[in-house]
Amino acid sequence: MKYLVKIKDVKSTDELKGAWSNEDFKALLAEFEYPDAAQLKPGELKEFLFLAIADFEPNEAAAILLDYKCSDRLAEGQIDNLSHEMLRVKVFENYSEIDLHQDLFNINQLLYKAYNGKFPQGMVNVVELEIKPVDNDSEEMTKETALKAMSYGLAENNLINRLLSDQIEGRKAFPEAEGIIWDLQHKGNHVYSITISEKWLTKTEFTTPEYECTVVPFEDQEEEE
After folding, report:
1. pLDDT of residue 220
2. pLDDT at position 223
């Protein structure tokens, strides 16, 4: 299917809005043994959580946060390993399970701020773009379609184009798209907001602000037979 794509804006941020709720902060204050969380005002919760986190050794704090956020997907040994690795490397970019990258980023950024930069800093990009079907068909926009359409405006040496060219061109299934795009919002009039890690693209990798592309869906030959 053919699309007209216009890159309207690319903004970088080190924190995802809504990643943690006040209820999360209260629960984490309890995990970090802060006794009076119920007495705090909503605007105070995050700052007091930072103070509570900083009372622990960095790897201990990382393990507590990993257990809170990811215990349903990580075993105890994996949590222990990650809690040490997080001090040295950007696990939110390098961990083998792409679907965990967003949660690992949110955990890392709490630790980065609580320890004043002792953990690696993470950044994400929020891309606002228009993806308009050339023939005006109203097909639902999925993360896979949006990522494929956006990739055609990126430099050839961009990581997505280098590592995932078969998926982009429809020769292989593309389940990775669900983990690469952290958030896809429809703003109306074919305008979308895409939240994606800086690992996968930077602002300078967009080669043109406006282009036409053909998105080819993957068709499983075995299923067809």
Report:
1. 64
2. 46
Q: Is residue 106 part of a domain?
A: yes
Long-range (24+ apart) CB contacts under 8 A made by 89-96 are: 89/120, 90/120, 90/122, 90/199, 92/122, 92/197, 93/122, 93/197, 93/199
Query: How many degrees, rounded to 5, is the angle at CA 142 between CA 138 and CA 148?
Result: 100
Q: How are beta strands 124-133 and 2-13 bridged, if at all?
A: antiparallel
Rg of the chain over CA atoms, in angstroms?
Answer: 20
Mean pLDDT of the chain: 95
Q: Provide the domain limits for residue 49.
A: 22-114
Question: Looking at 14-116, which runs of residues are DSSP E strands?
Answer: none
Residue 149 to residue 4: CA distance in whole angstroms: 9
Is 103 part of any domain? yes
**126: Cα within 13 Å, side-chain hemisphere:** 11
Please count the structural domains in the chain. Answer: 2
Q: How far apart are CA 217 and CA 225, in angstroms?
A: 17
- The pLDDT of residue 221 is 47
CA distances from 103 to 67, 68, 116, 137, 182 (A): 11, 11, 20, 35, 10
Question: Looking at residues 38-67, what average pLDDT do you find?
Answer: 96
- Closest-CA residue to 49 (of 108, 101, 111): 111
Among the three residues 114, 143, 159, which one is the final residue of a domain in this structure?
114
The model scores a pTM over 0.90: yes
Map residue 3 onto helix, strand or coil: strand
| pLDDT at residue 80, rounded to an integer | 98
Tell me which of 114, 140, 161 is where a domain ends. Answer: 114
